[in-house]
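Service request form, structural biology core

Requester: graduate student, group of Dr. S.
Request type: structure prediction, single chain
Budget code: on file
Notes: please return the result as structure tokens.

Sequence provided:
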Amino acid sequence: MKKLLLLIAVFALLIPAGLTACKQQPETKTFKVMHEEKFGGIYFDSTIDAFNALGFSYGDSVDIEFSNGTSMKDLPYYNGYYVDIGDPLLVAYPGYPYIEAAINYGDDPWIGLGLDDSCTATITLKEKGKYLSVQNARDITYSDEQGDTEDAVFGNFRSVNVGSLKQDILFRSASPCNNEHNRAAVVDRLISAAGIGFIIDLSDNEEEIGTHINASDFNSPYFLSLYEAGKVTALGLSANFKSESFAASLAAGLTKAAKNDGPYLVHCVEGKDRTGYVMMLLEALSGASYQEIIDDYMVTYDNYYGINETSDKERYDVIKEKNMDAMIAYVTGMAADTDFSEIDLTPYAYQKLMEMGMAKEDVDLLQSKLTRKN
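Core staff response, request fulfilled:
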């Protein structure tokens, strides 16, 4: 009898543990897939909150099986793009309407996997918390509420006076027309005060600009005046700066900019990634040193996240190495771990702009518009 009672007690203790283990296994569900055409990715018809409610957590490893027989294996699930350039992930980026499978700064997996709107996908857990250390190390978010933050910091707005750039000829910022992050009106006031003469809008196409202008919360009269005067070039770039379409569109936009007068503003939505790449090219073309380029790029992370070399050196180093060093490596054709500090980046930027499709005379014209005469 005592042995029976003991077995019952042990069994009773094991049942909750077993049930808990079962609850930790995310629910298996089949999702419809949609093409995210702007940046190139695969949307699954689940909001971030609904997907996490199934039992998935940031830092998990997942497998995705598509109904056309293709798959994506061992993807890290993050709430940001915390993978190397060219690597795949499942991402729940704040503000996205759905979870998305993408390749960071890479080719469109929708096209690569041959998907269409009739396809479905099953996402399953491969390993719980496999990438949790990366998620915890790189998890960064910012607020869209200004509070007492200065306008220039909130709008990620600044003049970039590095290398041989003319004083206050080249500016960068968050979007002055897309109010997705509640910054457009703030940026518009700043570009008006700076007397911006021409805008290179990396993120929007003409249709999207029209949507922003017709939105009920549009409050950017200075941007509108420039747009109506033909002083805005709308490029609608993806994040894949290595793609032919990115290169061709950017070359056309910079050619148009060269044939207009500044001061010039370069922006995307946040003024961070696409803007970071283009500003690196323009700064390098204008004789900026590697350290000047890094310092300017990392101001954005200080503005949005409070990350700088003093406050959070570990994250600072990772962001610098994974993002800007990788971009410079692409432009120069060198390894990402190269010591760029002693390298003159100007000829590499000049050559890259011509490879992208700019005529030599237009690169020369752009350089002359941006830089001081020796």
